[in-house]
Specification:
Layout lengths: L19 H5 E2 L11 E2 L21 E6 L6 E2 L5 E5 L2 H5 L8 H8 E3 L24 E5 L7 E3 L19 H24 L4 E5 H13 L4 E5 L13 H12 L4 E5 L6 H5 L5 H17 L8 E6 L4 H14 L5 E9 L12 H4 L1 H16 L5 E9 L13 H14 L4 E4 L19 H12 E11 L15 E8 L11 E7 L5 E5 L8 E8 L10 E3 L2 E2 L14 E3 L5 E3 L3 E7 L11
Parallel strand pairs: 2-16, 3-19, 5-15, 10-11, 11-12, 12-13, 13-14, 14-15
Antiparallel strand pairs: 1-6, 3-16, 4-16, 5-8, 7-9, 16-17, 17-18, 18-25, 19-24, 20-21, 20-23, 20-25, 21-22
Helix pairs in contact: 8-9, 9-11, 12-13
Amino acid sequence: SELIRGFLLSGMPCPSSCPPGLLALMAPGLALMATFSLPSQAGDRRAVPVEKPPGVKGRTLILLDVNTKSPVRIISENFLSLQLDPSIIHDGWLDFLSSQRCAGPSAQLLTPAPQPFVDFCSLLMAEKRPKDTLCLAISLFSFPFAVDIVRSDIALDKQKGCKIAQHPDIMLELQREKAAQMHLVLLKEQFSNTYSNLTLTARSLDKLYNFADCSGLHLIFALNALRRNPNNSWNSSNALSLLKYSASKKYNISWELGNEPNNYRTLMGRSVNGSQLGKDYTQLRSLLQLIRTYSRAHLYGPNIGRPRKNVLAFLEGFMKVAGGTVDAVTWQHYYIDGRVAKVTDFLKTRLLDTLSDQIRKIQKVVNTYTPGKKIWLEGVGMTSAGGMNNLSDSYAAGFLWLNTLGLLASQGIDVVVRHSFLDHGHNHLVDQNFNPLPDYWLSLLYKRLIGPKVLAIHVAGLQRKPRPGRVIRDKLRIYAHCTSYHNHNYVRGSITLYIINLHRSRKKIKLAGTLRDKIVHQYLLQPYGKDGLHSKSVQLNGQPLAMVDDGTLPELKPRPLRAGRTLVIPPLTMSFYVVKNVNALACRYR
């Protein structure tokens, strides 16, 4: 059986069931890539701590400058990417990816700049053809397998021939009911660790690939590593059938093998160690080289879970055998158990900082065996176990998400794949009506405003002196990047700051040095409505954000601030500030 994981490396609008605006967001902007600023202290990769000492009354004025001479990091243009949960094959949402309501939002998310929504993003659902006979059986595990999306550079003029499917409202309502029932089944399977099999037909694979291709996305497909021979080596017979079928259709796909292999004992009753999986990857690379279409295809892995001691030992075994075989090393991270999460959890600086230590652990192992090898965080969510309604899909979850982008960029992680664009849980970016949720708008702004060059920041202001054995946690987090080159509203040389204020009071920041007396455009995101941090709606500079219609995103209007004005950051908010016409040397050229 074959497990699918699709990375839609996107740069264009997409299929028809997701709102055109949404997928469009994911196109050149949906490979949501974020560039974040590094603190000025050598060796410290976290955001700079800015705290008021005990006993000091009044508000502290923080002076902020940015090193504009050279970037401290340059991340991939595809830095911010997305996943599609494999449950879409199981619960019927796959057929709706080609709809206009889905296509727009997904494509726009992956595009760095606004794009006109035209006849792209179709799964060619209306095409009539003979019933497919080739079946690829896959074992569906709701937590380990996914379909990922990242930006591609396919031009819009290559999207000819794709049509958007039209689904009556009654069909969408019936699909939501079906998905709700399947959600309960998947949760039961997940909590009991007993999973049913899913048969993936060639027709489903065609739909999936056409969704990606017509959206300007690149598909990364994870083959099932759970098919084992008696000696515990990988049984590649079914994978070979899938590879031959895909090659016959000339599908441009990258590949992986398995997902969270460190958990296979739980899933199949016997374990696979890192060395064995490394041999399996070597076998897969040999298979790919035998097929002309995939002789130079990219291969990623091993997509391990959280890097605890036993998982790091697994990674070491894998890297010894197959470190040179993969094009990037992948792992996953989920912050909170979604079954017990509370809104206050998303405000804890200790939780925000857990990722930084994991990055260093992964980097240490990878650089020991393959120095300079690219690393991807391929699967990140605010909560595990599918998330929790009104929490992991709320405004509050955005603090973790934006800080994740900042930490990863500043510490040199090349790509981050967000779980998920649409799935059966509550970690997604759009709801089951294909309406954007808070993290969608946050990701869209990030994609539109943030370029791949990360800049160091310098902060001056009153700071608490650390006591022995005590770690100062940063409640005000500031990152800086060169403004996205794809955003034609700003000339090259402009700088974008993004700021997370976890304080329950407002903070004032005065731009200094090269940023002094420059015009600034403010993009302030706050919760909209009476639900506060639990809200599933957001406002930008005081105006609520919502789709104009099924295929049109609203204009994201900044609030201009006069030159030299102090930035006032409201409590418990996230914001972006484009400092115009800085003429930063680091940002003039790509």
